[in-house]
Specification:
CATH topology: Amidase signature (AS) enzymes
Shape: globular
Number of strands: 13
Structural class: alpha/beta
Distance between the termini: 52 Å
Number of domains: 1
Number of helices: 20
Strand content: 5-15%
């Protein structure tokens, strides 16, 4: 066919103007002065922000590896997949895959597109991310190619987000700190290997309270130099995100992934789970390995699953379990079971309730539901417990444990040996690297006791907390204790008691709250069974309006 000369010229001009690679929408930093001024009168002093956007990280870079896929994935594709994925539990998603309605590649791209859509939009961004795994779509395609009719584990092909103090190749592990921006670890953390062995996909890393909220005094929950200020999807700049697993809670609430992993020393899973209406499990210390996780305290730290529902939490916990010879607290635990949770009941269970929590209106509603289901709720006044050296325990441990991470797991090119090195780096430009100061780190530098020297006081503190709980349980013949969010987290941490938070509703102004179950060590199975029974009664969780 012979082209008319004018037609030929038009085609030449068109081809010459067409970009060789389709372009993504781009985030442009903006003047946030007015937002900071409007929050300067916030009744919660920690929410009187000095900064919201990160001055270290270009959020456009998160999505660059997926440019071609994002351009080809349309809003129509997104809307078609939405009912198959949004707010669905893992078994339901796997069923869609098994029936041919969904692939792992589509599932993964759905979440990437959703984050792209919201995190590059000024009215909806949550600062939930620190990095995305550039290989994850290729890995999802591999899962599709190698998928068998019978799944080896329900986590196969499921995209999971990690708190950014957990090592996962090929991403950096930063704890939100500028000094660790180039900390590309030598290997995956033990728990990440466990996830990958089950076929899970590591989607990326989420923001957190810098150094797991053991860095600056009185600073905002969810702030880090690298990630900026994490925002609560139920009330951006209105409600706190909880910390320090802030991004984990926020990302799960906003349906940015199937689930996320958080870490807790004292309240860092329970707090953001409550404030973001997600299920969060703080396991017994040693049930999950801590190798390859930036520490606060080897005595108290643990990772844990954060999910939209209890069944997913149990599935994730099952995948994470495993004994690790490199973690002195690690032990072999019986794998959590999850297939029977929909049959669990509260009938006959004896649950202890602190009298102070019994006055909460959401707790009162929860108690009515549990009593109607046959549970016995015993209200009591708790005894006093003496754990006044809790903060010293954290100081002593972090002073010793952080250098061990640097020397064993961190990228050797960092040339970091101690907290003193971190403090010195931040002082070079504290306005940029530490806008809220680094008072806790400065305090740790003044602590000169070793872990060996502090061991007697640590044992006394932990025994005191353990005795406190056991006396209550024995006196009232309890299966578990009830609390709200992270209100009892410090005592539970010191006693090595596991705890599970499950959504129980929202205050009149829309703030989420969780009902927290606390049980003796190694009773995660009991907690998940209680949580599943309550979840079925309560049916409380609602996705945030902006993210439906």
């Amino acid at each position: 066919m012979k082209l008319h000369p004018l037609t030929f010229l038009v085609w030449i001009l068109f081809l010459g103007c067409k970009p060789s690679t389709p372009q993504l929408n781009r985030w442009e930093p903006y003047d946030e002065t007015s937002e900071l001024i409007s929050n300067a009168e916030h009744p919660i002093s920690r929410m009187q922000y000095k900064r919201i956007q990160s001055k270290h990280t270009d959020r456009n870079s998160f999505f660059t590896p997926f440019q071609k896929d994002l351009v080809e994935f349309t809003q129509t594709d997104y809307e078609i997949l939405k009912p198959l994925i949004l707010e669905q539990d893992i078994p339901s998603i796997q069923k869609q895959v098994q029936q041919g309605h969904l692939t792992y590649e589509q599932l993964t791209l759905f979440y990437i597109y959703r984050m792209y859509r919201h995190e590059l939009e000024r009215s909806t961004f949550l600062n939930a991310l620190i990095s995305l795994n550039p290989l994850v779509l290729d890995q999802a395609r591999k899962c599709d190619k190698e998928r068998k009719e019978e799944l080896t584990h329900p986590l196969y092909g499921m995209p999971i987000l990690l708190k950014d103090n957990i090592d996962a190749v090929p991403m950096a592990t930063t704890a939100g700190a500028a000094v660790l921006s180039q900390n590309y670890p030598k290997e995956d953390a033990f728990i990440v290997k466990q996830l990958k062995n089950k076929g899970a996909l590591i989607l990326g890393k989420v923001n957190m309270s810098e150094w797991a909220y053991y860095f600056c005094q009185g600073c905002p929950l969810g702030f880090s130099a690298l990630g900026g200020q994490t925002l609560n999807p139920y009330g951006r700049k209105i409600f706190e995100t909880g910390g320090s697993s802030s991004g984990s809670g926020v990302a799960v609430a906003a349906n940015y992934a199937v689930a996320a992993i958080g870490t807790e020393t004292s309240g860092s899973i329970l707090s953001p789970s409550g404030k973001n209406s997600v299920v969060g499990l703080k396991p017994t210390v040693g049930t999950l390995s801590r190798s390859g996780i930036i520490p606060i305290s080897s005595s108290l730290d643990t990772a844990g699953p954060m999910t939209k529902n209890v069944i997913d939490n149990a599935i994730l916990m099952n995948a994470l379990q495993g004994e690790d010879a490199r973690d002195k607290y690690s032990f072999h635990s019986i794998p959590v079971r999850f297939n029977h949770l929909d049959s669990m009941r509260l009938k006959g269970k004896r649950l202890g309730l602190y009298r102070s929590f019994a006055e909460d209106s959401l707790m009162q509603n929860a108690v009515v539901k549990m009593k109607n289901a046959g549970a016995n709720i015993i209200v009591f006044d708790p005894p006093e417990v003496e754990i006044d050296q809790f903060r010293t325990l954290l100081d002593v441990d972090m002073r010793s444990d952080l250098p061990k991470y640097f020397n064993t797991f961190a990228n050797p090119n960092l040339e970091l040996d101690s907290i003193k090195d971190v403090v010195a780096f931040n002082l070079k430009n504290d306005t940029l690297h530490a806008p809220y100061g680094q008072e806790i780190f400065l305090g740790i530098l003044e602590e000169d006791r070793s872990q060996v020297e502090f061991e007697p006081q640590k044992k006394e503190l932990m025994q005191s907390a353990s005795t406190y709980f056991h006396k209550i349980i024995e006196k009232h013949d309890l299966d578990a204790l009830l609390s709200i969010d992270n209100n009892s987290a410090r005592n539970a941490a010191a006693a090595h008691f596991p705890a599970l938070g499950v959504p129980m509703g929202y205050t009149v102004n829309g703030l989420p709250k969780n009902l927290t179950f606390i049980a003796p060590p190694q009773q995660e199975q009991l907690l998940l069974e209680l949580g599943a029974a309550f979840e079925r009664l309560s049916k409380s969780r609602k996705p945030p309006v902006l993210f439906q």
